[in-house]
Amino acid sequence: MEDIEQVTVSIGDAAKELGVSVDTVRRWADKGQIKFERAPSGHRRFYLADIKRITPRNLRQIDERVTINYARVSSHDQKQDLARQVQVLEAFSGSNGWQFETIQDMGSGLNYQKKGLQKLIKRILKGDVGRLVLTHKDRLLRFGSELIFAICEEMETEVVIINKSLEEISFEQELVQDVLELITVFSARLYGSRSKKNKKLIDGMTQVVKEVNN
């Protein structure tokens, strides 16, 4: 009977045994946190006995990655709100003893090309981020935040949302701005950005949104 101490498994089997992704096992191996050998084919082989010794508690210790606080507002006139978000995020992360960095963004929640958001996604995909902290879910994106959260789950990045309620006045004002931007984009596609129909539709919808908000 083969000695279990000498049994090796592929990176895929190691990932299944640990309940993590292949990319996570590869990252740990690159950091020297899990031992492996190279087969004649060049593929990594992991000792099954070592894998079985790793417990969920060990996994948390083995993956000491940075916490990133992400703060966003829609426009320059919300700078005070941005500063308040940063203060809340950093106080929260500091009180939990987390090693953190803060990324700030200024732009619509409908804009996927913001520099801060792009930087955040790249860091998550590299496996650098152990935890993402937000004041509210929609500070990340107005629509599509679930996609980013799915990436976080795949990369084993914990998502922490401090406030689950959406009672802030500034939040409601920001939502109005995003709705108006969405109307502008789609009406421009339908009629052309300079057409009279486009202007009439935007003016009418803007008035409706403002009346509902008031």
Protein traits:
214 residues; alpha/beta; Multidrug-efflux Transporter Regulator, Chain: A, Domain 2; Rossmann fold; 3 domains; four-stranded parallel beta sheet; three-stranded antiparallel beta sheet; 9 helices; 7 strands; 16% strand
Please describe what this structure looks like.
The relative contact order is 0.10. Strand 4, helix 5 (79-95) and strand 5 form a beta-alpha-beta unit. The model has no long low-confidence stretch (mean pLDDT 78). 51% of the residues lie in helices and 16% in strands. It has helices at residues 11-18, 22-30, 48-53, 56-62, 79-95, 115-126, 145-154, 169-191, 196-213, and strands spanning 8-9, 36-38, 44-47, 66-73, 100-106, 129-134, 158-161. The chain is elongated and about 75 Å long. Strands 5-4-6-7 form a four-stranded parallel β-sheet, sandwiched between helices. Strands 1-3-2 form a three-stranded antiparallel β-sheet. The chain is an alpha/beta fold. Helix 8 runs antiparallel to helix 9. The protein starts with 7 loop residues before the first strand and ends with a helix. It has three domains: 4-62, Orthogonal Bundle (Multidrug-efflux Transporter Regulator, Chain: A, Domain 2), CATH 1.10.1660; 66-161, Resolvase, N-terminal catalytic domain (Rossmann fold), CATH 3.40.50.1390; 169-213.
